[in-house]
């Protein structure tokens, strides 16, 4: 068991120690600072990204809150517009109903006036026709009565006697 790797000799140990020391010196002089610098850059980058993510999260919360406020305001405005539209439509319907009622009343009154006018006109025409018919009938009766001379004289005499009495 004289393997030099398992049981190194004093010379091998000495050169290994010097080689390790040179390696540590080179690493400490150039390697570790670069490695630490890279790690520091990476750590700073990660920290910046975390800060940016936190900032973005906060902005998203603010935007969400702002969006909720805008949504509430939009709903309020929508409700106000709908209420105004409903009131306006009710007002228009009421005005139309009032105008229609007034127009109907005016038409009914006009129709009543026309009916009364036509009724009076018809009664006047009827009276005129009755008078004309009565005169025609009386004329025909008189002609029939007065066609005979003796009858005519007796009728005239009778009318004269009645005229004196009145």
Largest sheet: none
Count of alpha and pi helical runs: 2
Q: Rounded to an integer, what's the Rg over CA atoms?
A: 65 Å
Q: What separation lies between the terminal Cα atoms?
A: 188 Å
The succession of helices and strands, N to C, reads: HH
Structural class by helix and strand composition: mainly alpha
* Helical percentage: over 70%
General shape: rod-shaped
| Secondary structure: number of strands | 0
Strand content: under 5%
pLDDT averaged over residues: 88
Name the poorly predicted regions.
none
Report a brief summary of the structure.
The protein is 93% helix and 0% strand.
Key features?
166 residues, mainly alpha, 2 helices
Can you describe this structure?
The protein has helices at residues 10-146, 149-165. 93% of the residues lie in helices and 0% in strands. It is rod-shaped. The protein is mainly α.
Question: Helices and strands in order, then pairings?
Answer:
Elements: H1 10-146, H2 149-165
